[in-house]
Amino acid sequence: MSTYSDDTKTEIIHTRSMKNLVVFTVLFLATACATSPGGRKQLLLMPKGQMDSMGQQSFAQMKSQQRTIRSGPVFNWVTCTTNEILRAIGENPSRWEVQLFADDSPNAFALPGNKMGVHTGNTRLAGSTAELAAVIGHEIAHVKAEHGNERVSQNLLAQGGLVLANIAFGQSEQTDQLIMAGLGVGVLMPFSRAHEKEADLLGLDYLVRAG
Ligand SMILES: [Zn+2]
Fold first, then answer.
1. Which DSSP string do the residues of 179-207 spell out, in sequence order?
2. Which of 91, 139, 146, 150 is catalytic?
3. Which of 26, 38, 45, 147 is least surrounded by Cβ atoms within 10 Å, i.e. has the fewest?
4. What is the pLDDT of residue 152?
């Protein structure tokens, strides 16, 4: 003979799994706190491997949508400058990828998974190798300091309430969509002021080390 009716039993199991989820989330958040190379406390919720593969996917998509320049003096300039900075900070250049995008806007960007893009608009604006190096050092710093992961984690936290509600109501498909939206937007969103400042300071340190 059963002590509980089926409904009560379901409710108890449901409450217990919700409690487990909350405990798990709190533990997860507690262990996900890291310190950035610039000495800031950061929240990193995503496994590094997953961030890297998301960055690699986004980068592959960009390369398929926009022309890249893979030879010539400007390409060599960007590649040599990048490699010199990487070697100076103990990174193996073969584990990084920098691409020169045929784009007139004066931009550069970095993605998790050691991916960087420099626009031709940026190389035209840079008057010297030191100026180009300042931009590239800044982008390397975004990757090294895991700013992408931090951005995605903040997005996930902001959506946390919605995600938890969906989990509670068993709408796993919607939850997956929400998480994926948060991740995708997070990878490609501009960085915050704090991230920009930290990337500037770290980037300067890299330049000093590279001489
Ligand atoms: Zn930046």
1. HHHHHHHHHHSPPPHHHHHHHHHHHHHHH
2. 139
3. 26
4. 84
Give the up-direction half-sphere exposure of residue 178: CA atoms within 13 A in the CB hemisphere: 18
| C-alpha of residue 172 to centroid of ligand 1, in Å | 35
Q: What angle do CA 84, 140, 137 make, to 5 degrees?
A: 60
The model's pLDDT over 66-101, given as tens digits with 9 standing for 90+, comes to 999 999 999 999 999 999 999 999 999 999 999 999
Tell how far the Cα of 13 is from the centroid of ligand 1, in angstroms.
Answer: 47
84 is catalytic: no
Expressed in angstroms and rounded, the spacing between residue 110 Cα and the centre of ligand 1 is 8
Residue predicted with more confidence, 4 or 88: 88
Residue-wise pLDDT for 145-202, tens only, equals 999 999 888 887 777 666 666 666 666 666 666 656 655 665 667 788 899 999 999 9
**Residues 110, 196: Cα–Cα separation, whole Å:** 12
Strand ranges for the chain from DSSP E: 33-35, 41-43, 68-69, 97-101, 108-111, 115-119
β 97-101/108-111 pair status: unpaired
Express each pLDDT in 92-136 by its tens digit.
999 999 999 999 999 999 999 999 999 999 999 998 999 999 999
Q: What angle do CA 184, 187, 190 make, to 5 degrees?
A: 120
What Rg value do the Cα atoms of the chain yield, rounded? 22
